[in-house]
Design a protein that fits this description.
The chain has 6 helices and 2 strands. It has 159 residues and is mainly α. Belongs to the SufE family.
Length: 159
């Protein structure tokens, strides 16, 4: 049984209403970096702001230029729900791309996915600054560590 969006902490449309394939099709139409930039800002606008009570120290990423929060919850069906926010529009758009790739997947599915490949496929990896790319890699590491912790700590939820 899949948990409804109402039962999720900080629900968002990424990974459910907005798919990886939709992102790929949209970004493939971008010819210049400004077009990619515009798309990231549009994605950022679709990611609802986190309530202040979810912007806690344990969900705040360290070492990022902009403040970024990334949290997650294990759903009853063994899938993971990720949620987040950022003070920077581009970073928030990059976070939305990552959420699209991981939302609603099992820990095993997340660990089997090359998450950086989506950024490359969208033409973002080669366009963003080195510090932003390092921030994306840090977000990916956080997602992968979350998935690993559920496999290690909760083997009973693995499919």
């Amino acid at each position: 049984m899949t948990q409804t969006a109402e039962n999720r902490i900080a629900p968002h449309p990424f990974g459910r209403e907005i798919s990886q394939q939709q992102l790929i099709e949209t970004f493939n139409q971008c010819r210049q970096w400004e077009d990619h930039y515009r798309q990231l800002i549009l994605l950022a606008k679709k990611l609802p702001a986190l309530p202040e009570n979810l912007k806690q120290q344990d969900t705040e990423m360290s070492g990022c230029e902009n403040r970024v929060w990334l949290g997650y919850q294990l759903l009853p069906d063994g899938h993971l729900h990720f949620y987040g926010d950022s003070e920077g529009r581009i970073v928030k758009g990059l976070l939305a791309v990552l959420l699209t790739a991981v939302e609603g997947k099992t820990p095993e599915q997340i660990l089997a996915t090359n998450l950086l490949a989506l950024f490359h496929q969208l033409g973002l990896e080669q366009q963003i600054s080195g510090s932003r790319l390092n921030g994306v890699k840090s977000l990916i590491n956080t997602v992968q560590n979350a998935a690993k912790s559920y496999i290690k700590d909760h083997p009973d939820v693995a499919p």
